[in-house]
Amino acid sequence: MTTTPPCQPGFDRRYDVQGLDAIDVAVLDTFAYVRQDDPAAYPGEPMDIEIITDEFSPVCPWSGLPDFGRLEIRYQPREKCVELKSLKYYLTSYRFVGIYHEHATRRLLADLTRLLDPLSMTIRCDYGMRGGLNTVCTVRYVAPDQAGGTAK
């Protein structure tokens, strides 16, 4: 007679996750890339802006457990820059969203390029080691009017 070992308590546990509609795009805000009241001409444009955080944490769509990632956003603004407090609230809205690493990275790019209309943008997220595998996702955008050469 074969006996099945009892299931360990908690191994079948799954945390509830929120859907994509919980991503708070409406909280994102911008400010002008160039101040209208500043007569100084800035040499060396365009500017490269880098925003980096180790606190990006969507959740696994299967288990609901958090995935922690180092998020790097790099862009060349056209007319607008993302306001950092609003970006922090936006990123925090992913906290309970069940989404794969690849989808989260692409969604970030889609939302931010729609908001900013940048000359170019690259988003890279290193989700760290999990089960012996490290996932790093990188997505890039170059504005159609910049695709023929380097962004200006």
UniProtKB/TrEMBL annotation:
Single GO term (MF) = hydrolase activity
Q: How far does the signal peptide extend, from start to end residue?
A: none
Which BP terms does GO give this entry?
tRNA queuosine(34) biosynthetic process
**Catalytic activity reported:** 7-aminomethyl-7-carbaguanine + 2 NADP(+) = 7-cyano-7-carbaguanine + 2 NADPH + 3 H(+)
Protein's job: Catalyzes the NADPH-dependent reduction of 7-cyano-7-deazaguanine (preQ0) to 7-aminomethyl-7-deazaguanine (preQ1).
Return the similarity comment: Belongs to the GTP cyclohydrolase I family. QueF type 1 subfamily.
Which keywords describe this protein according to UniProt?
Answer: Cytoplasm, Hydrolase, NADP, Oxidoreductase, Queuosine biosynthesis
Specify where it is mainly localized.
cytoplasm
Kind of enzyme, top EC level? Answer: oxidoreductase
Q: What is its EC number?
A: 1.7.1.13
KW Secreted (keyword) present? no
The compartments listed are:
Cytoplasm
Report if keyword Lyase is assigned: no
Q: Which InterPro entries match?
A: GTP-CH-I_C/QueF (IPR043133), NADPH_dep_7-cyano-7-deazaG_red (IPR050084), QueF (IPR029500), QueF_type1 (IPR016856)
Looking at the record's lineage, which domain of life comes first? Bacteria
The organism encoding this protein is: Deinococcus deserti (strain DSM 17065 / CIP 109153 / LMG 22923 / VCD115)
| Residues binding substrate, per UniProt | V82, E83, L84, H101, E102
Q: Which residues form the active site?
A: C60 (thioimide intermediate), D67 (proton donor)
Q: What is this protein called?
A: NADPH-dependent 7-cyano-7-deazaguanine reductase
Got a GO cellular component term for this one?
cytoplasm
Which pathway does the database say it acts in? tRNA modification; tRNA-queuosine biosynthesis
